[in-house]
Amino acid sequence: xxxxxxxxxxxxxxxxxxxxxxxxxxxxxxxxxxxxxxxxxxxxxxxxxxxxxxxxxxxxxxxxxxxxxxxxxxxxxxxxxxxxxxxxxxxxxxxxxxxxxxxxxxxxxxxxxxxxxxxxxxxxxxxxxxxxxxxxxxxxxxxxxxxxxxxxxxxxxxxxxxxxxxxxxxxxxxxxxxxxxxxxxxxxxxxxxxxxxxxxxxxxxxxxxxxxxxxxxxxxxxxxxxxxxxxxxxxxxxxxxxxxxxxxxxxxxxxxxxxxxxxxxxxxxxxxxxxxxxxxxxxxxxxxxxxxxxx
Amino acid sequence: xxxxxxxxxxxxxxxxxxxxxxxxxxxxxxxxxxxxxxxxxxxxxxxxxxxxxxxxxxxxxxxxxxxxxxxxxxxxxxxxxxxxxxxxxxxxxxxxxxxxxxxxxxxxxxxxxxxxxxxxxxxxxxxxxxxxxxxxxxxxxxxxxxxxxxxxxxxxxxxxxxxxxxxxxxxxxxxxxxxxxxxxxxxxxxxxxxxxxxxxxxxxxxxxxxxxxxxxxxxxxxxxxxxxxxxxxxxxxxxxxxxxxxxxxxxxxxxxxxxxxxxxxxxxxxxxxxxxxxxxxxxxxx
Lengths: 295, 286
Fold this sequence. Notes:
- The structure holds two protein chains of two kinds.
- By secondary structure, chain A is an all-alpha fold.
- Chain A has 13 helices and no strands.
- Chain A has a single domain (61-294), classed as MetI-like (MetI-like fold, Orthogonal Bundle).
- Chain A has helices at 2-6, 9-33, 53-59, 62-95, 100-107, 115-125, 132-139, 152-180, 185-192, 197-222, 227-234, 246-256, 260-294.
- Chain A starts with a helix and ends with a helix.
- Chain B is built from 13 helices and no strands.
- Helix content of chain B is 75%, strand content 0%.
C-alpha cells in the first residue's frame, strides 16, 4: 500500500479513470454499435448483431467515399498551405526587429476565434448578397454577385480560406519560437565560409526548425476535426453535398437520419484517420529530434 | 536608395498586408455589430459607418428596446449562464486532475511511460462528432442529455490531455534537487510539492487553466448534440440558432459573436507567452 501511495499510479489514477469512463468506454460502445443496425427510433436494434454489414455497405457507398476523399484532400492542401504560409510569416517576423513583439501578438488574433466564429465570420464575408467580398468586388465593377458558398469549387475554396486563416498562426507562432532559438554561431560561420542565404536556410535553419514543424503538425493534427464546426456553420455540408466532409456526413447520418449504427461505422473510420495523422507526425517529431541530437 | 533600404521597405510592406489580412475579418464583424440593419444591407455598400448604435446589444441583454425589432428571439442570457457554469467547473476539475497527472509523469519513471503519455494525448485526437455519438446513446439512457453535469463531464475529459502535456513540461523544468533537499530537511513529499513545486509552476498551471477554459468556451461539435434546450445550450450553440431563422439577422449575430470573442480575447492575451514555451519545450526536450 505504501509503495502504491509513493508510486506514480496514485497520481495518474484520476486522469486514467476519467479518460476511461468518458472516452474509452464510449468508444467500445461505438465499436459495438457499428456492428448493429441501431436506429434511435428503434431502441431494440441496439442488441442485434449484424457483423460487418454496415462496413460492407460503406465500401459500396459512393457518397461516403466522395466525402472521405474530399476530407483527405482538404486536410492535405490545408495543412501544407498553412505550413508554407506559417513558415513565410515566421521568417518575415524574424527579420523585423522593431515591433516584433507587437506583431507576434497580432499574429495570435485568429487563435482566439472558436471554429464556429471563424465559420460565421467567413460565412458573412462570402455571403453573396451583403458579404464583404462581393461588396468589395462591386466597387471594381463586378456587378453580378459571385455565389461563393453555392458553387461547388468556390464553396470548397471559401471553406479552405476560413480554415487557413484560423490555423496558419499556430504554425507561424511555433516556427517563430523555433527560429528565435536557433544559435547564431553556425549561421555566421557558414556566411564567413561563403554560403549564400538560401544555402544557410536549407542546411542550417531548416534542420533546426524541423522538430518545431512537427510539433506544430502534431498539435494541429490533434484538432483537424474542428473543420466540422466551420463547415457546419458556413454551408452545413451543402448545397447538395458539395462541401460534405466526413464529419458532417457522420453528423447527418447519426442525428438527422437517426442511423446510429451506420454513423458509428463511419466515425470509426474517421477516428482511424485522425489517429493516423497524429501518429505519423509524432513519429516524425521523435525522428527529427533524434537526428538533431546526433549531429 | 541602396539595396538594404529597398529590402526594409519590402519587409514592412508585406508585414502591413499580413496584418490587414489577419485583422479585417474579425474587425468587420465587430463593426457590423454596432451598425444599423439598413447600412448592413445597403447597396452599393456603405464603407464609412454613418451612425453606430448599441441596439443589438440592448436587444440581446435586456430583451428589446424602442427602435429595435422587438424581443430578442435568442435567449442569450441563459446561454451565457450555461457557458460560464460549464466552462468554469470543467476547467477547475480538469486542471486539478491534469496537474496531478502531469506531476506523476514529470517526477516518476515507470514502464511504458511514453506509451501511456501518447495514449492520453491520442484520446484528444478523436473527432468531437465521433465521440458524441456513443456519449449521446449513453447519456440518453442515464438521463444526462441536456444537463450541465453531462457536458461538464465530457469537457473535463476533453481538457485533461492538454493539461497533462503542459504541466508535465512545466514540472520538468523545476530541478528535482529542490524538493529532494526539502525532503531531507523533514518535509513530506506532499509538503514539498505544496511549498516548492506548486508555487514554482504556478504560471504554467494558470496557462493550462486558461487554455482549458478556452477549449470549453469554444467547443461546438459535442455540445450541439448533447444540449437540447436553454437548460444547457451554450453561446456557441446559440450562435447557430440564428441560422435556423428565416432571414438571418446579421447585426444581431455579429453582436453575439462579439460577446463570445471578448473573454477569449482577454484570456489569450494573458496566456500567450506561456503557451508557446509550454507547447514547445515539452516537445523538443523530450
